[in-house]
Structures are given as C-alpha cells and as structure tokens.
Amino acid sequence: MAKITKLDDIVSLCKRRGFIFQSSEIYGGLASCYDYGPLGVELKNNVKKAWWKSVVQMRDDVVGIDCSILMHPMVWKSSGHADKFADLIAECKKCNTRTRVDHLQENAAEQTDEHTEHIAIDAAMSQAQDLNNKVCPACGTVGQFTEPMPFKLMFETKMGANIDDSMTIQLRPETAQGIFANFRNVLDTTRVKIPFGIAQIGKSFRNEVTTKAFIFRTREFEQAELEFFCEPGTDEGWFEHWKQARFNWYINLGMKKENLRFREHDPDELAHYAKGCVDVEYKFPFGSGDWQELEGIANRTDYDLRQHQRGIRTLNKWYENNRDLSKIQLADEAGDYNKGPLSYFDETKKVRYIPYVIEPSAGIDRSALAYLVDAYDEEEVRGETRNLLRFHPALAPVKAAIFPLVKKEGMPEVALNIYNELKKYFNCFYDEKGAVGRRYRRQDEAGTPFCVTVDGQTLEDNTVTVRDRDSMEQVRLPTDKILTYLREKLDL
Question: Half-sphere exposure of 414 toward its Cβ, with a 13 Å CA cutoff?
Fold first, then answer.
C-alpha cells in the first residue's frame, strides 16, 4: 500500500475525474477560486449532510438556520470585523509581492508550521517583527520590505440603485455573526432552552493576501458552524464535550486517527474574546510542517452577544441624532447588559444572564480535501497499479455502479432496470462502455463502494455479481436482494 505524499497527485485526480476544476479556467482561471465538478459536488454535499446529521439531526439540543450573506453594516461594526479584521502585510521592494508578515520566513531557515489564521490590526501591529532577516517568498530577496501595513480582508459592495440612497456593505467573512444576530428570533419562535445550539452551513468570503494549497485556503469558501449557548460556569464542560464530539466525527467517517490531532492555542495566540481554543489538525501532504487546521473549537464567552447589544444601543442612538453610519462608534460597555434583548431568562433559576458560547467551526472545503487525501490509495494488483479512493460509504459521491457485462443479449435492459430502481434510494451510475475491468478501475478511482454486474448467468437465474471496492471480492445475489444488501452495507 502506497502512502500519498504529494498534493499534486490529488490535484491531478480531481481534475481528471471531475472533482474540482479551476474557476473560469477557459479564461486562464481566477486565483484561489474553484468549481466543484460532478463528483466533487456530490462529495461536498455528502460532507455537509454528514455534518448536519451529526450536529443537528441526531441531537435534541441544536436547531438549524440559514442566514443571508449580506447583512446590516452594524453587524460587522459590533463584531469588530469592520475595524479590526485584517492581516498585517509587507511589500517586497524588489518584486512588489505583498506577503503576510506572520508568513515571512527567516533567512536560511526552514518553513515552520503555519497555525495563524487572521488577527486584529492592533494585535498584528504589536506582533510585527524586524523584517531585516526575512525572505521574500517570491524572489528570495532578504530584508527588503516596506513598513508593515494592515490589509482589510472583507469584500465590499454597494446596495441600492441610486448614489444618494446606496449603502456600502460587506460580504460576510464568517457565518457565525448571522447566528448571533438571530439569537432572539430563535428563542422567541422555538421551544429551545439553554443549553442549546444554533447551526448553519454557508458561504463566506475573505480577500486573502496569501492563498494556499489548492482548496485549503481560498477567497470563497464554505463553513459549517455551531454556536452552542450555555450558562456561565458550565462552559468548560461543554467545551470538552464539543472537542471530543467533533474529533470523533472525523474518525467515524473513516479518517485515520494517526492523521488527526488536537492543538491547544497558546495564551498569547488566543483571540481577545476567547477563554480557550483548540484546533483539530490534519496531516496534509503539503508544507514542511504538514499539520494544518481542519476545525477550531473555541470558548467565545459572552463576548458576541454583549457586542451586539452594544451595537443595538449604538444604532438606536444614531437614529435619534441622525449620525453618519460610516463614523459611528460603539456605545461604551456601561449599563446592565443582562437586561438587554440578547439576554436569557432562566425560568427555573429565576435569573437572567448573557449566555456563554462554545463554537465548533469547520471548513467544508478543507474537510473535503482532507477526506480526499485520507481516502487516496495506490496498490499493486496483478502487476498493475490500482488507484482508488477508500471513502466512507456516507461520503462516496456514487454509492453503486451498474454494468452489463456486454452490450447484447438483453443484458443492458436488465442492468438499466436495476439502475432505475436503485437510483430512487441513492446516487448510482450506469456504464456499458469498455471492458468490465476498466470500468471497475474507473469506479475505484471515483471512490464508488460497490459495482453490480449483469452477465450471462443473470439471464438464466436472475442473479448478479456485487463487487466490493476495497477488497475486490464478489458475491452473487438475486436481483430482488440487491437493494437490501446495498442499503445494509451503506448504512442507509
């Protein structure tokens, strides 16, 4: 069994088999933007379905939501993104390449693990180091950089048809804030009681300075986030609960445990609002460090709901005085925020408080990439190399492929009848072209768990062969038992 060590093999497979394409490729492509092909969109949808099933469907304490990408500017003012969501960058004076300061490497030093995501402007400034010994990643020049400067990461657009009534708004850089903004709506319209969570999956956008490694870091990406609200004092227990639940999710879907680990954030690495944070990391086949973040689980305390209560008070005051929204400043934190609209009243204990929040935040694109890498395998079979994707059945883009052995003697008709029956229950593929061995290999490379073949014996006794992708073993089954057999194997 060969272990994949190069990302190039995954990129080649994705293009060759229709998993992932470069966006706008016919025009030369658009950097850090990708399109999911026929197999890729099925894989990505299956990752999302598996996440939703685990986090929402199988729990009684989590509900779902789907928030708008475009939101009121005060959402980002209150959350801090409008003022502080930026990367600190420096420009090479020789080649004019801009690079994040925290990504610049020391001269003659190997690249270190990259654990940083995005930090606030003030924090970035305080962490800026002497660049005299830093190397430009584009041209190799040492120490020739401009002074570090903040680069805002949110995309902006205009809402409104006329100049006079238009408003500058941002594409959301994360899905979490829509959940916080709808906290009261969910409380008022459902029967949820703390502790409970609100989950959503959706697109986010970041004008990244440095993109990386295929779909690992892109400017348009999809997130799966849960905000789990709990009573202050119980937060550490829930933090541990969600750490283990999310780690186990990857393992339960077939990811090799040796390729996963936890990484606790150092105290000086924590966001200013976080009480604790841990990353679930995967050993990707790129970079010298390999270990990269798949998902973060953070204890965000009561920061977000408090900030939005400040934002509500600020906006009310702004309306009273007709202030310019572009210059608005958040109200100070004085006052009893426990009595605000985003507070929670515990009927049993007769107390009101701002809930603490535990946030597991996963990247769907990163997860899809990790599952592709983890499933990829090469093995020698009768003197030939067999490439295959050992996907967990829940993630496999196609669950079963249906083949007639040859295109004659009524075999295609029987195979099509089986195909039309099975596709009512799960995604199937019909193929009658080429030698059956080649058809098996194509499905192995697509990650299809089972292949059903109609042959001459089928016409005699109404049985077919069902081939297992991983073991390549075949069993003979009556046609009326195929669905039951596959549903049991696929756990559907």
Answer: 25
Q: Is the peptide bond before 195 cis (omega within 30 degrees of 0)?
A: yes
User: What is the tens place of the pLDDT at every residue in 410-450?
Assistant: 999 999 999 999 999 999 999 999 999 999 999 999 999 99
**Residue found by looking up tokens 């049991």 in the block:** 488
CATH architecture of 398-490: 3-Layer(aba) Sandwich (3.40)
Q: Convert the pLDDT of each residue in 180-209 to its tens digit.
A: 999 999 999 998 999 999 999 999 999 877
Domain locations in the chain? Answer: 50-82+155-370, 87-152, 398-490
Homologous superfamily of domain range 50-82+155-370: Bira Bifunctional Protein; Domain 2 (3.30.930.10)
Torsion on CA atoms 468, 473, 477, 480, rounded to nearest 10: 0
* Structure tokens given for 84: 């502080």
> 47 near 364, Cβ under 8 Å?
yes
Contacting residues for 94 by C-beta, under 8 A, at least 6 apart: 136, 139, 141, 144
As beta bridge partners, residue 134 has: 106
Can you list the positions of beta strands (E) in 185-236? 196-205, 220-230
